[in-house]
Amino acid sequence: MAEEREKAVVVALIERAVDSTSAEVDPRLLKAIKFTVRYSDSELRFAAQTLMSLMKRNHSQVRFLALLIVDELFMRSKLFRNILVENLDLFLSLSIGFRRSHPLPPPASVASLLRSKAIEFLEKWNDSFGIHYRQLRLGYDYLKNTLRLQFPNLQANAARIQQERREREMRTREILLKKFESLKTNFSSIKEEIKTNIDEIEECLEILRTKDDDEQFDPVDDEETEVFCNSELLQIRLDSLREGKKVQENSENTVVMDALREFYKVLVTKHLAAVQEWISVLIRVEVPDHSFRDSALKNLIDIRNIIQSTKRKCEESGCELRKIANAEEEEDIWEEGTVETFDKGKSGPSCSKITEAPTVSTSNNARGAECTNKLSTVTEKRNAQISESKSDPERSKLLAEAPVLNWGSFLDRWGSNGDALANQRGLDVEGHWGRVDHDAVIPAEKIAELNVRASVYEEEPVEIQPCRAPLKNGRLCQRRDLRVCPFHGFIIPRDDEGKPINEGSPAEEDADQSQPKESTPNADSNVVHQLVKQAVKNVRERDRGDAKERELDKRALKKAKLAEVREHNEAMLRDAAIASTSRSYYIGEDTEIGNGSRSSSKSKKQTLASMLKKKETTKDRLAQRLLNTHARDATIRQLTTAEEANYREAFPNQW
After folding, report:
1. Distance linking the first and last C-alpha atoms of the chain
2. What parts of the sequence cross the membrane (predicted)?
3. CA-CA distance, 565 to 573, in Å (whole number)?
């Protein structure tokens, strides 16, 4: 009894793990299977029998998951290996499918994955246990050498990767040793070179400080000092003091600043990078004698600290590397060409020329002076034109009366009264069919008729008033329509709150205006007329609301009837499906019929049966449309008609 219960537990766990559409076994179920078969040989035999029976299922997904469980048990149990090796021929046939009479079952995608995984597992088993099991060696040799199956060669690939990694590490070690020997040989010269550069930078900084200290500043009175209680003002004060400590470059210290920049550039780009690289080499290199390496590493760390402190001093003094863009701008050459101003058709003074020699811009001050000269020159020209127009009143009068027109082809011969040659367009070769008269001209009056000025009508913009009807969110409607808003009807004047200023729609106002007004003796008749209009309006609005409510009630009743019919049909279909299938297959899967929930019918969970169905692709649908009888006959008829038309056009017209 206990043995049957253990067998039932093992079989239930394995079947539950295999009954899945995922690409791997559930880790919890796999752990439970291994825990169950660990302590009993009988349970392990039951597991082997169950897995072999599952491998005979006509479904590749079931075989694939069973193969994964077999691999886990094969690598952990000697008894399981002995049981499997006895039926290895059948197992390989079911997992690899090398026999033509017994191919792998559908689906094809899972079958290819099953085949590749089985070949990979067989190679792994042969590498691990082939020396102990002759059947494994023979099966591996038969598939590889006789059937010529391609194995992944995982062990060879791992060995190759390991060898490449060892070779790469060896090359790296050799490179580090070469660099270490080079450093050991040239360490004293490197230290001397860096020390020389740092000393030169210190001398330049000392020169700049002495020149800066020579300037005397007036002492600040105690009464003028301020107490900065605000942290922001204090920070601004400190920043300004820090900026004041920087050395300002001028004509006296330009040479020193240039030399300091060169030394600073060498220190940062060459020496600091080299020291960092040597420190990295000393940390990674492996040498038998560590005395020189430790001392050199300590000295290089001290040198790096000195370089960083020197770099900080240079930055505090205002010495920074110039940007490449600024250097290129300073090397540009600015040339001033010849600028001429002249006036056509006037016997005034001769054209003035401003000619300057090419100048090299070496500083911003020089460029600013040149820009100032240019601006003054342009201003002088403009003043000269203004004074000239004032001195000639007739010209200024004509300019005031001249129309402003858009550009067009009619402006090419504006104001000309001469004739134009007809056959001379400036080309060396003229394409004419007959004799050409090169002296033919087009009269001036014809040219005037051809030069028609076209103008586009531009409508004057009219401001369209917004609707300004109140909305649900408290705002006003901003649609701008001419007369009627599609959401709020006729557009009427409204105040800032959206309330109508004049009651009634524009249509009613027009109707009132079209009717002749009768003179009433008193104002009571007008009040009665307004009350009658308001009563009629209220009755119409109430009738409109009642009609809308009736329409909504009809729609709701129709929806309720459709829902009842749909629920009845679904219940009938569910009962018919349950009655036509096996009850045991659907135990625990269907929901209760009486609850009326439709979640089970809507959910489309993939199952093992759905995996066997062939999915209809776009190619299948196109083939079904194109390869039917009607399409084929129509295509043949169209091709025959085209060939006959070509024959009728080509062959009878030969001569």
Report:
1. 105
2. none
3. 12
Long-range contacts of 50-56 (CB under 8 A, 24+ apart): 50/10, 50/11, 50/14, 50/15, 51/14, 52/87, 52/90, 52/91, 54/14, 54/15, 54/18, 55/91, 55/94, 55/95, 56/94
Q: State the residue for tokens 């550009």.
A: 407
In three-state secondary structure terms, 494 is: strand
Do the beta carbons of residue 441 and residue 420 sit within 8 Å? yes
- Encode 125-193 in three state secondary structure: HHHHHCCCCHHHHHHHHHHHHHCCCCCCCHHHHHHHHHHHHHHHHHHHHHHHHHHHHHHHHHHHHHHHH
- Rounded Cα gap, residues 307 and 261, in angstroms: 15
What is the separation of C-alpha 439 from the centre of its chain, rounded to a whole number of angstroms?
67
Q: What is the CA radius of gyration of the chain?
A: 50
**For residues 54 and 507, what is the distance between their CA atoms, to the nearest angstrom?**
85
Q: Give per-residue pLDDT as tens, 137-176.
A: 898 888 888 888 878 777 777 888 888 888 888 998 899 8
Dihedral sign from CA coordinates of 136, 142, 143, 148:
positive
Residue 585 phi/psi, 5° resolution? -75, -25
Q: Give the other-Cβ count within 10 Å of 425's Cβ.
A: 7
pTM equals: 0.38
Nearest-CA neighbor of 308 among 275, 353, 341, 280?
A: 275
Label residues 192-201 b or e (16+ Cβ within 10 Å = b): eebeebbebb
- At 396-445, the pLDDT tens digits run 887 777 777 777 777 777 777 777 777 665 554 555 566 667 778 888 88
Q: Over the stretch 3-55, which tens digit does the pLDDT of each residue have?
A: 777 778 888 888 888 888 888 888 898 898 888 888 888 888 888 888 998 98
480 Cβ neighbours under 8 A, 6+ residues apart: 464, 465, 466, 467
Produce one character per residue of 274-308: b if its CB has 16 or more CB atoms within 10 Å, e if not: bbeebbebbeebeeeeeeebeebbeebeebbeebe
Please, are residues 123 and 152 in contact by the beta-carbon 8 Å criterion? yes
Cβ pair 114, 95 in contact under 8 A:
yes
Whole-number mean pLDDT of the chain? 75
Helix H or strand E segment including 352: strand 352-354
Pull the structure tokens for residue 170: 């060896």
Q: State the burial class of residue 557 (Cβ atoms within 10 Å of its Cβ: 0-12, 13-18, 19+).
A: exposed
Report pLDDT for 361: 38
Nearest Cα neighbor of 122 from 95, 90, 156, 161 is 95
Residues 6+ apart with CB under 8 A from 479: 466, 467, 485, 486, 487
Q: How far is CA 178 from the centre of its chain?
A: 47
Q: Write the single-letter amino acid at 446.
A: K
- State residue 355's pLDDT score: 37
